[in-house]
């Protein structure tokens, strides 16, 4: 019965002196302590205390110990000690599997000059008999060294080379190469009769020179080198040792390994301290996972326990067939596969492994007709069968639920309750229902990230989606009234009431910073509601507002509330002022009664009106627009205003206020600049100019309660900006709520002079450049679709710290951030990535090896849906292993891509 691993360890401690250490009494004890001192005793030296992990001969020493070729001395191997001739003879006979032919009972008498320890004499006799040693040569060698014992003397490099070449059965090759020059500079030092064996040993890869030019034939061989030489020779003269199994590795886990042998499949338990090697390296592998499946392996151990597993080649004994599953005949254990030309029947048994392309384990029941698969069948059995099926894609039909992660470009990505992302294309005729049962306008595009949904998939296409809960609900209707914090509107002929959220936003076309009091009865409203049903935003859809900027008041009747004005374009407008009319003076809303006395003939006002109703009256104290004319000789300023009209203003002197430019004068102001011109008290002349200047910032902090932003410019010190009263829009011009601002985001602040006048949330996108054109760049966005960016004029490319105005600075494969600058020009900034060494995943964070003890940049939080790739193809996060070289791409403080290699 084979000894257990524990018994092997115990036997190691009991051996007082190994056969390689010398001494008959101790050697006899060793020989009798474990199964006659042969192969089973080998495992006693499985782990030697003086052969540390990583020792250059570790593999060979452990392997030969488990094979019984070498044995330790009280748990030690003494790898640096010289090996004697008599010890080398014992190793050679065990290497050949000939130890059982030893006759220890026979009397052995050698010449007095040929001295051998009594224990080793039977081994030397057998070696002479088998031709491993030549009696004439060895007796002559002993005679030439009368002061040394032949057996106890250290084996020289040339002597042990000759012994191993003979043990490997390559004596004929040695004879053929005897007359050939060895190529070593010290070839003349090789003793007579050894040159052919040295040449044969070198040509067979058994031995090497101590350098490329020197063989050093007479220097002693240490025990570690001897073990390595015999280990190499095993490829030439394979011997089956007790406790050794050879075959093809078909499965491996952390605790077991399955090998196909001549007797069928065998499964071994992997000992906790088992070692794993490849034939082409001495250093142990990190784990069994580094062994390559379906290659030949050698397993050493006891019974079903494996202590040593070596992958002996790199050729996988399998073939792969890619095709489409057409039928699964479970009763016949056969899968019928169409490879594009032929129908192939593939048999399988219980050892079949099925997995997804990402490596997830699947069951046979998960295989579906018309699935695209890769089938690996073996080439090592008489009747080959399927070993592994990798499902590339399968038609799926299912019901599911989860949270919308993304919904764009006809694709729906849902995060399920398990945390996994599922992405499905929308089928033709897809129906998407909102939380209120209405079909969403735009289909999938009408969904919002975070919406809870149920969905149906048929043949891998989503055919229906129903919103079951949403953070943003939509409603529409006709405005009726608002009272306190309740909005009343009519929807589908029914009166509805909803509470208003604390930070409700209101958008009315043509009205800056509107308030709820600006709503008119029957205004058509689009509403957004939160999960609690409170209204978070209101947009008036049907209001058509006409604006006259700098219009002249012709008359105003307080009794009739009738206002007549003439625009700068000469257009007349007779307007009805109502209780809803908003009146502004110097940016502040005032009661109509306060402003009545100011509505005198000749007064300049800006009016906004819908139909004949005056919606807004703003007393003009300034004009904002683009300079069309600035004549210092005639002292004339002409502005093109935002409403399409123009205003021509005289001036006596103009002071200039310009953010970031101290000491600015009128000479610095140019045609085409956007400015705000302030008027004198008579609204007749311009007195000062505030130049509009855009500055781009990164948001460093957000105080939502007080609406204060911490902003960091590209260079210089950060600022705190009170943004509660500033108009806030997206870079598409649409009003956005303050809640859209978050740390890490990008904003443009427009200053009128030193005063912030508006805030724009900049859309920043990240992705990989796929194509570079003369005037455009195509970027595959992370988690999204490909976008082609038209560069326009004034664009800039930032790469490797340099700013360029040429698109040629970019190349396909560049990871980039794209955005608009403060002046609206396209900015594309390349990210070179950070090269690191992967360590492990921990609590959703990716950890890398620290460059030093002071390196604190070693933890990275992966963004949801972060890409993990290798050679341009997506891989599973679990495919990353300790020590892998990785490049990390961090954008906006988030790790968006990890590239292996």
Automatic annotation (TrEMBL):
<dbReference type="Pfam" id="PF00395">
    <property type="entry name" value="SLH"/>
</dbReference>
<feature type="signal peptide">
    <location>
        <begin position="1"/>
        <end position="29"/>
    </location>
</feature>
<keyword id="KW-0732">Signal</keyword>
<dbReference type="InterPro" id="IPR001119">
    <property type="entry name" value="SLH_dom"/>
</dbReference>
<protein>
    <submittedName>
        <fullName>S-layer homology domain-containing protein</fullName>
    </submittedName>
</protein>
<feature type="domain" description="SLH">
    <location>
        <begin position="181"/>
        <end position="244"/>
    </location>
</feature>
<feature type="domain" description="SLH">
    <location>
        <begin position="44"/>
        <end position="106"/>
    </location>
</feature>
